[in-house]
Write a structure and sequence with these properties.
Blueprint (H helix, E strand, L loop, with lengths): L4 E6 L6 H13 L7 E6 L5 H7 L4 E5 L16 H7 L3 E4 L2 H6 L4 H13 L3 E6 L3 H5 L3 H13 L8 E5 L13 H18 L2 H6 L1 E4 L8 H5 L6 E4 L7 H7 L1 H7 L1
Helix pairs in contact: 5-7, 7-8
Bound molecules: glyceraldehyde-3-phosphate.
């Protein structure tokens, strides 16, 4: 299996200069296994240059969003071109907080993903169902529709990581069980096989997000179709290092 384990830390709208320096210092001092894991941290826009300048070179940074098309007269937005100019390699798109709070539709997210890729960014594309959708039995339909809106707009999947983040598990402390997560990851991979192609399905990393912490990461990492994590709250704490090191669980399971 050629999918290198991937651990993203989404700091969301958190941090002061002092806190940022402390988190980076903890990461820089950690013994992560770079041969087994890709580590990408995503601070708020304004901290990106600082984090990039301080962070160890084997870890990377991601923006938490970018504008849907070429920059210009779009007050308050940050374009893909600006991120590229700053040397930011990754961007998180389609996070459920933006989908729900800012009304980002599947199509809008698909357009953003396509534009970001066209500018040379790598994308962590988030999908996931709400509790109501899960209880209505429509989880697979929801994540398939979100993935389809991306698939219809792109032709090359090599710079995409798909993050499955059930909305009910985000920031709630209510993590999906390893079986629940594995089931959706497996369905997503099947969707990619049926609707894109087998090569993309086999090579695309599908990572899990939603209340991942140092106590549950190893068991989740051992699941066949879980290729890493997108971590929120715990990425602000020293336990993030433990989550990064759960990559060794995956290597052992292969
Ligand atoms: O992007 C990360 C997810 O929203 C997960 O956040 P959380 O780990 O705080 O639940």
């Amino acid at each position: 299996m050629g999918r290198k384990f991937f651990v993203g830390g989404n700091w969301k709208c958190n941090g002061t200069i002092e806190e940022v320096k402390k988190i980076v210092s903890t990461l820089n001092d950690s013994k992560a296994p770079p041969q087994d894991v890709v580590v990408v941290v995503s601070p708020p826009f304004v901290f990106l240059p600082l984090v990039q300048s301080l962070l160890r070179p084997d870890f990377q940074v991601a923006a938490q969003n970018c504008w849907v098309k070429k920059g210009g007269a779009f007050t308050g937005e940050v374009s893909a071109e600006i991120l590229v100019n700053l040397g930011i390699p990754w961007v998180i798109l389609g996070h459920s907080e933006r989908r729900s709070l800012l009304g980002e539709s599947n199509e809008f997210v698909g357009d953003k993903v396509a534009y970001a890729l066209s500018q040379g960014l790598k994308v962590i594309a988030c999908v996931g169902e709400t509790l109501e959708q899960r209880e209505a039995g429509s989880t697979v339909d929801v994540v398939a529709a979100q993935t389809k809106a991306i698939a219809e707009r792109i032709s090359d999947w090599k710079n995409i990581v798909v993050a499955y983040e059930p909305v009910w598990a985000i920031g709630t402390g209510k993590v999906a069980t390893p079986d629940q997560a594995q089931e959706v990851h497996s369905e997503l991979r099947k969707w990619l096989t049926d609707n894109v192609n087998a090569e993309v399905a086999e090579s695309t990393r599908i990572i899990y997000g939603g209340s991942v912490n140092g106590a549950n990461s190893k068991e989740l990492a051992a699941q066949l179709d879980i290729d890493g994590f997108l971590v929120g709250g715990a990425s602000l704490k020293p336990e993030f290092v433990y989550i990064i090191n759960s990559a060794t669980e995956k290597v052992a399971a292969i």
